[in-house]
Amino acid sequence: MFKGIATIALLVISNAFMTLAWYGHIAFKSKLERFGVIAIILLSWGIALFEYCFQVPANRIGSTQFGGPFSLWELKVIQEVISLTVFTLFAVVFMRSEPLRWNHMAGFLCLILAVYFIFRK
Questions:
Q1: Closest CA to 18 of 58, 45, 36, 56
Q2: Within 13 Å, how many C-alpha atoms sit on residue 65's CB side?
């Protein structure tokens, strides 16, 4: 149980860094617009390094190949659900220009169904 919780916690942290690396330059445009695209790319790469510092251990801890509780398929679906959850929080809090709509929620419901089917034995 500990490995499962640790895996999910590390994936949440990893995805927070990933979302910031991928979309932070859009959310914080006013603070970063004086920098060129090369500087923004380097900044994003620097942030993404922290993503990998959490994601790689999460996948190793969680993988059945390393004694964890999740198959490769389960890890991938968990990661995608966490990724969209973290992105949704980021978009709602920092990207107020694009509201959360019913079709987004319908898509998330489909992902929850994906989790159900992937974990079904």
A1: 45
A2: 9
Backbone angles phi, psi at 97, to 5 degrees: -75, -15
d(CA 87, CA 91): 6
Interatomic CA distance for residues 22 and 41, integer angstroms: 9
The alpha helices in 2-101, defined as continuous H runs, are 2-27, 29-32, 37-62, 72-94
55 closest CA partner among 93, 88, 94, 86: 86
Nearest-angstrom CA–CA distance, 90 and 80: 15
The pTM (predicted TM-score) of the whole model is 0.83
Task: Say how far apart CA 90 and CA 100 lie, in whole Å.
Answer: 11
Angle CA 104–12–90, to nearest 5: 45
Write out pLDDT tens, residues 87-96. Answer: 888 888 888 7
